[in-house]
Amino acid sequence: MSREIRIGLDFHGVINSNPDYFKAFTQEAIGRGWKIYIITGGPYEKVATYLREHKIEYNHLFAIFDYYQEQGLAEIRADGEFKIEKALWDKTKATYCREHKIDIHIDDSKEYKKSFSTPYCRYDATTHECFLDVEHKLDLSKSISATLDKIEKFLKE
Fold first, then answer.
1. Does 86 have pLDDT greater than 90?
2. For 11-27, what is each residue's pLDDT tens digit?
């Protein structure tokens, strides 16, 4: 491709469901000159620590909780849980991907997909398959090189 490829990866339910695979996946993608964006609910520091401990490489880390907390829109409950308006939460990843020109986002949520204009690959942590659409499926348990080649081919179509 004539420009770098930007891949968005969800943390909860994707990276943390198969950290060894995503360690190798992110290393090879970055080795190709691609950019990896970890896009997660957060919190930022907890996710960053996990990524560091598992040697998962990335170029950018975005945490919805921290983003809305900085804007005063995140409520932290007495039990330590946090609350952000559902309508805001559900569209934030899609907005982030659009604004940062992410080429493809891999996530396990059916709900988030509704807001996306960016190609969205819904990941199944049990089968390690990721579905872009009816015709395009990635097997994230097989060769990482083959998977990255398939992503590149999909983006060229």
1. no
2. 999 999 999 999 999 99
- pTM of full prediction above 0.90: yes
71-80, 105-114, 134-143: segment of lowest average pLDDT:
71-80
Contact yes or no for 46/112 (Cβ under 8 A) = no
Residue 63, beta-bridge partner list: 40
Alpha-carbon span 95 to 22, nearest angstrom: 24
Cα dihedral 65, 5, 95, 85 in deg (nearest 10): -30
CA nearest neighbour of 131 among 114, 144, 119, 149: 119
Helix (H) or strand (E) holding 123: strand 120-124
Taking the chain, what is the end-to-end CA distance rounded to the nearest angstrom?
Answer: 11
> At what angle are helices 144-156 and 19-31 packed, to 10 degrees?
60
Alpha-helix runs per DSSP H in the chain: 19-31, 44-53, 64-70, 86-99, 110-113, 144-156
The domains of the chain, with CATH numbers, are 6-156 (3.40.50.1000)
